[in-house]
Amino acid sequence: MSLQTLYVVVALTTVLANAGMAVADLAGARFVLANSAEVGLPRSWVPGLGALKAAGAAGLVLGLAGLPLIGLAAAAGLVLFFMGALAKHALAGVYHNIAFPGAFLALAAATLGLGLATG
User: Residue 22 half-sphere exposure, CB side, CA atoms within 13 Å?
Assistant: First the structure.
């Protein structure tokens, strides 16, 4: 598999994961609201965080569609977003589900790294 193909596969996986979570956030899914309450985020922040995930996913799609700088910016934004999520989990002492933001961070970082490598 070429590096470019790997980038497309990882980027699309990152798009699908973030788009799915954005829908859950925007719909106010119970598990999202429970998790945000557990780490101490106000419920009012959930739609905005969902919008940021959706924007990241959309930016990655634009990157794949021929606007690579937007894709790189979106990937970098998602890396920062999920670094913040991990920090919030750690500060709140909530470790039982920290693998989820960790996995999203890994996808975003892989997308960013591969995007830089193929750019």
Answer: 17
Residue 116: closest CA among 81, 68, 65? 68
Query: What is the three-class DSSP state of 1?
Result: coil
48 by Cβ neighbours in 10 Å (0-12 / 13-18 / 19+) ranks as: exposed
Q: Give residue for tokens 């830089």.
A: 116
Domain limits, the chain: 3-118
Closest residue by Cα to residue 14 from 84, 114, 116: 114
- Provide the token pair at 64: 């794949």
pTM of the predicted model as reported, rounded to 2 decimal places: 0.96
Instruction: Give the total residue count for the chain.
Output: 119
- Contact 67/11 with Cβ under 8 angstroms? no
**How do residues 27-76 score in pLDDT, each as one tens digit?**
999 999 999 999 999 999 999 999 999 999 999 999 999 999 999 999 99
Which amino acid type is present at position 95?
Answer: Y
Distance between CA 38 and CA 93 in Å, rounded?
9
